[in-house]
């Protein structure tokens, strides 16, 4: 269970849902003792929430008859934003997301006027948000723990499982999290490598907070750093290719801003991309997902890897 403020709000939610509920049941649900429950009731009363206490064997706590929280008002634009946000959250690969999202939607609808509730349900019933799906997570609580650590600027430890090296223990200062093309990424300072690194969350397990703290660099943008790292991933093989598209279309795919677009050079037939990779197999998989044509200038090893990848894809169509 979360902190005291969350528990107090949970007590209010239970009172609104159940009408009357005993102190013992509240204590069991929240994982605290009955004396703590009485303190939470006092906090609600101090906030102006009228709570009635019924003594005796079948007693308990209930809200004064007729008490309701004021209706929650949204503009049409805000209603659409909330509804689409809940729809998108279902696609983000979060552990146990469905029950939590359903609970949030139920709480919002409980305090919405009827016409607003109808609009929210209408968006939910008629609109779909389909995001790319990544690989299953090795640690269902990795995202939640890393979010907490990033916000509190606490270092974390975890095991990172790479195809080349297997599981390696890492200690990292988490600077930010990014959801991109169906995957979650962590960006931060890796103490093992003594350098900035990006990590795929589906390759992370056993995340735990450490006692050490850190200071995030001012104006650090996790999305910009990740985009830059994609353009300079590895240092083994030089790669040169032409993307047959314009800068605007490329920026929509790569997510770069003006600060990290220097890897592209405008040419008559498109954009020249010069970068590096340590894996032709990974780079060919990445190229196959691009929504526009491209021409590989060098190296030949990348061309061979792309042909093999294309052959495997064609075999799936037989």
Automatic annotation (TrEMBL):
<keyword id="KW-0805">Transcription regulation</keyword>
<dbReference type="InterPro" id="IPR028349">
    <property type="entry name" value="PafC-like"/>
</dbReference>
<dbReference type="Pfam" id="PF13280">
    <property type="entry name" value="WYL"/>
</dbReference>
<keyword id="KW-0804">Transcription</keyword>
<dbReference type="InterPro" id="IPR036390">
    <property type="entry name" value="WH_DNA-bd_sf"/>
</dbReference>
<dbReference type="Pfam" id="PF08279">
    <property type="entry name" value="HTH_11"/>
</dbReference>
<dbReference type="InterPro" id="IPR001034">
    <property type="entry name" value="DeoR_HTH"/>
</dbReference>
<dbReference type="InterPro" id="IPR057727">
    <property type="entry name" value="WCX_dom"/>
</dbReference>
<dbReference type="Pfam" id="PF25583">
    <property type="entry name" value="WCX"/>
</dbReference>
<dbReference type="InterPro" id="IPR036388">
    <property type="entry name" value="WH-like_DNA-bd_sf"/>
</dbReference>
<dbReference type="InterPro" id="IPR026881">
    <property type="entry name" value="WYL_dom"/>
</dbReference>
<dbReference type="InterPro" id="IPR011991">
    <property type="entry name" value="ArsR-like_HTH"/>
</dbReference>
<dbReference type="InterPro" id="IPR013196">
    <property type="entry name" value="HTH_11"/>
</dbReference>
<dbReference type="GO" id="GO:0003700">
    <property type="term" value="F:DNA-binding transcription factor activity"/>
</dbReference>
<protein>
    <submittedName>
        <fullName>Transcriptional regulator, DeoR family protein</fullName>
    </submittedName>
</protein>
<feature type="domain" description="HTH deoR-type">
    <location>
        <begin position="4"/>
        <end position="63"/>
    </location>
</feature>
<dbReference type="InterPro" id="IPR051534">
    <property type="entry name" value="CBASS_pafABC_assoc_protein"/>
</dbReference>
């Amino acid at each position: 269970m979360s902190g005291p403020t969350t528990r107090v709000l949970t007590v209010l939610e239970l009172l609104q849902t159940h009408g009357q509920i005993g102190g013992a049941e509240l204590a069991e649900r929240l994982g605290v003792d009955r004396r703590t429950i009485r303190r939470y009731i006092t906090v609600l009363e101090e906030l102006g929430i009228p709570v009635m206490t019924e003594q005796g064997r079948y007693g308990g706590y209930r809200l004064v008859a007729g008490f309701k929280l004021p209706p929650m008002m949204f503009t049409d634009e805000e209603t659409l934003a909330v509804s689409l946000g809940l729809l998108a959250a279902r696609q983000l690969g979060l552990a146990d997301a469905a029950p939590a999202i359903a609970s949030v939607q139920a709480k919002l609808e409980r305090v919405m006027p009827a016409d607003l509730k109808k609009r929210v349900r209408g968006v939910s019933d008629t609109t779909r948000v389909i995001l790319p799906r990544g690989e299953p997570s090795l640690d269902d609580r990795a995202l939640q723990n890393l979010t907490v650590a990033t916000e509190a600027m606490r270092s974390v430890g975890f095991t990172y499982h790479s195809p080349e090296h297997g599981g390696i223990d890492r200690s990292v200062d988490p600077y930010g999290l990014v959801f991109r093309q169906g995957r979650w990424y962590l960006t931060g300072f890796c103490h093992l490598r003594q350098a900035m690194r990006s990590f795929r969350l589906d390759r992370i397990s056993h995340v735990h907070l450490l006692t050490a703290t850190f200071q995030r660099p001012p104006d650090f943008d996790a999305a910009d750093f990740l985009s830059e790292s994609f353009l300079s991933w590895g240092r083994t093989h030089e790669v040169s290719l032409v993307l047959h598209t314009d800068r605007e279309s490329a920026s929509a795919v790569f997510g770069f801003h003006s600060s990290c677009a220097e890897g592209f050079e405008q040419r008559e037939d498109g954009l020249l991309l010069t970068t590096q990779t340590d894996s032709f197999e990974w780079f060919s998989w990445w190229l196959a997902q691009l929504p526009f044509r491209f021409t590989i200038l060098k190296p030949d090893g990348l061309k061979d890897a792309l042909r093999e990848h294309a052959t495997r894809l064609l075999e799936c169509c037989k």
